[in-house]
Specification:
Helix content of chain C: over 70%
Number of strands of chain C: 0
Largest sheet of chain B: 5 strands, parallel
Order of helices and strands of chain B: HHHEHEHEEHEHEHE
Largest sheet of chain C: none
Low-confidence stretches of chain C: 7-27
Largest interface: A-C, 133 and 126 residues
Number of helices of chain B: 8
Oligomer: heterotrimer
Strand order of the largest sheet of chain B: 1-5-4-2-3
Mean pLDDT of chain C: 80
Number of domains of chain C: 3
Structural class of chain B: alpha/beta
Number of strands of chain B: 7
Radius of gyration of chain B: 25 Å
Shape of chain C: globular
CATH architecture of chain B: 3-Layer(aba) Sandwich
Shape of chain B: elongated
Chains: A mainly alpha, B alpha/beta, C mainly alpha
Distance between the termini of chain C: 44 Å
CATH superfamily of chain B: Rhodanese-like domain
């Protein structure tokens, strides 16, 4: 069991920063390839005309999830050393709702806004300024919302723990759900396309 | 059938692979089920516990005095023995609870018991579960008592031995022990003085400051 | 061999076919989303295996904001519960942070991919029915909400949804559902901007 490499001290903090840069390149490259540098494509997700966001996100999640499962099964990867943040269920749901609204209003999420910025989109710059402002406001308001922020801490809970299912079963169910979502997305896109043509 | 598979688009092939892997995953269950472990018995039989994995009590005493926090000292004995006395900075984790504990695979774990038996057992259990840095305190509490808490020296020892002994006196008193000079051979029961825990030693909770690793 | 080329031609057809039927989106040859997702998943997996952590984005902005506020008003920053957690003991700059370097990589990687596909050009992403100025206003508002929501939820879509989702964290999945819910809920009201 040698992975995660960093946690087993195979290299130090400074090298990890270089690795961060390289991984970031891969991340940004993939995002741009997928068309996520364009706010119109990102927003199209919410109008069912272009369901790329769902397809890319879930494929990525399923890929990484399966990878993690099998690598830890064969004993190569130590799952307990990978960082999972605690579950603060209410702030996370509320934050998610706010984020979703910001997504459709602003047209980006933080990661994709950087990609759009790198390909020259001016609205991405404005968006990033907005994110900066939003974080600033959050920090300023922090003393007032601190209690809410730390509320409903369920600790480190994973879906298998919560539903009482085995890890493998949850992996399977997620794969099924993703495939179902993809099928629905393909169907939805076709329906919307026909509607578009008949307009 | 073969033609059908070949004619599927690339995405559909990915989907099929994903589905198959998912099905297999259900059968495999839990990757971190600790009941069974795969042990490379050949490797283990060839190498016994290496010298580098055996720590002697004097070294440990040095670490504690220096205030090192890069290791976790584990007392494998039962609760009563631990309550009576434990080596400073040790946590009490009986062998049966080793795998459920919060010991991490990338930590330096130093095991001890009364002598070496439980420690070797614990060493094996941890190594079989892919813990990397597992060490044994040679001689356990017995050695600790003999060498650190109650070091003794015979009355007609050589000057070098006396010098050695003087160094140990300081260490011994740091840990609340009492060094003895003179003949102790032949005495069956050395009356154990009440051992006081040195107050100043910080408890090693292990792990250090958790680094922020979120988004 | 012929079977392989047959498959490849089918894939190409699928991609271009999709783009043709979308009159709202320009016909740019973006890659197949499933392949992109697979690649992204591998990048994420690499992060897990190498670093024992996932990806992220909003955290980098937090670090930058912290440095900015600390430079302008250090006492205020250090007294604030949130900023101080980024400042730590002051010995290391918050900018020397994994996420900051990762985001720099994201910008570079996006640029690289854009250059290779001829997609690097300025402009503003917006629907046909709205003015640029309106779009900017919305972008700013949206960004603000995003920043706030991301901090509240301890992550944005990259960190919580992708990373936490792959690791099957309960909060992450709940977060993901909430994001989609929030987006779809407001989609009707925002249709002017996009369609």
């Amino acid at each position: 069991m040698n992975a995660p490499f960093y946690k087993f001290d195979l290299f130090g903090f400074d090298v990890s920063l270089i690795i961060a840069f390289v991984i970031g390149i891969g991340f940004g490259f993939a995002l741009e390839r997928g068309g996520f540098g364009s706010a119109r494509i990102l927003a199209a997700q919410f109008y069912f005309t272009n369901m790329r966001v769902l397809k890319v996100m879930f494929t990525a999640i399923v890929t990484a999830m399966i990878g993690v499962f099998y690598l830890s099964y064969i004993g190569y990867l130590d799952l307990s050393l990978i960082f999972i943040s605690d579950t603060y269920i209410i702030p996370q749901v509320v934050g998610g709702l706010i984020l979703g609204m910001g997504f459709i209003i602003g047209g980006y999420c933080p990661g994709t806004s950087f990609v759009a910025f790198s390909t020259g989109k001016k609205d991405a710059i404005v968006f990033i300024l907005g994110v900066t402002f939003g974080i600033f406001i959050f920090a300023e308001l922090f003393p007032f919302i601190e209690d809410f922020y730390y509320s409903t801490n369920m600790g480190r809970v994973t879906l298998p723990d919560f539903f009482g299912l085995s890890y493998g079963m949850v992996v399977f169910l997620v794969v099924l759900m993703a495939l179902g979502a993809f099928a629905a997305a393909e169907w939805g896109e076709r329906v919307m396309a026909k509607k578009g043509e008949s307009k | 059938m073969k033609n059908y598979i070949i004619n599927l688009s690339g995405s559909k092939k990915l989907a099929m692979v994903g589905l198959i892997l998912g099905l297999v995953a259900v059968l495999l269950g839990n990757p971190y089920d600790n009941t069974f472990a795969k042990v490379n018995v050949k490797a283990l039989s060839v190498e016994s516990i290496r010298d580098s994995e055996i720590i002697n009590v004097k070294e440990l005493a040095g670490w504690i005095i220096e205030g090192r926090v890069d290791y976790r000292l584990v007392d494998l004995r039962d609760e009563e023995a631990y309550k009576e006395y434990f080596i400073p900075t040790a946590v009490n984790i009986p062998t049966s609870k080793l795998l459920e504990s919060n010991l991490m695979r990338n930590q330096k774990i130093l095991l001890y018991c009364e002598d070496n038996i439980k420690a070797a057992q614990g060493w094996f259990i941890l190594k079989a579960n892919n813990y990397k840095g597992v060490y044994i305190l040679n001689g356990g509490v017995d050695s600790w008592k003999d060498e650190i808490l109650f070091p003794n020296i015979s009355a007609n020892a050589s000057p070098e031995e006396k010098a050695e002994f003087d160094k140990m006196v300081e260490v011994s008193e740091f840990f609340g022990g009492s060094p003895q000079v003179g003949e102790t051979e032949g005495e069956k029961e050395i009356k154990m003085p009440k051992i006081e825990m040195p107050a100043a030693i910080p408890m090693n909770t292990g792990g250090g400051k958790p680094k922020r690793e979120g988004c | 061999m012929t079977a392989l080329t047959h498959i490849l031609s089918k894939v190409k057809l699928q991609v271009t076919d999709k783009e043709h039927t979308h009159s709202h989106v320009e016909a740019k040859p973006y890659s197949n989303p499933y392949y992109v997702g697979f690649g992204l998943g591998l990048v994420l997996l690499a992060a897990f295996v190498i670093m024992g952590r996932g990806l992220g984005a909003s955290g980098a902005v937090s670090s930058v904001v912290t440095v900015g506020v600390n430079a302008v008003a250090p006492e205020h920053a250090q007294n604030n519960g949130y900023f101080s957690s980024y400042i730590g003991d002051g010995s290391v700059s918050p900018l020397k942070d994994w996420l900051v370097f990762e985001v720099l990589g994201v910008i570079f990687g996006g640029f690289l991919s854009g250059m290779l596909a001829g997609r690097v050009k300025g402009g503003v992403e917006k629907g046909p029915r709205v003015k640029t100025r309106t779009r900017f206003i919305f972008a700013f508002i949206g960004g603000t909400l995003m920043g706030f929501g991301a901090k509240l939820a301890r992550g944005c879509t990259s960190g919580q949804a992708l990373t936490g989702g792959a690791l099957l964290g309960l909060g992450s999945w709940a977060f993901m559902l909430a994001v989609f819910a929030g987006g779809y809920a407001l989609a009707y009201f925002m249709r002017r901007q996009w369609t």
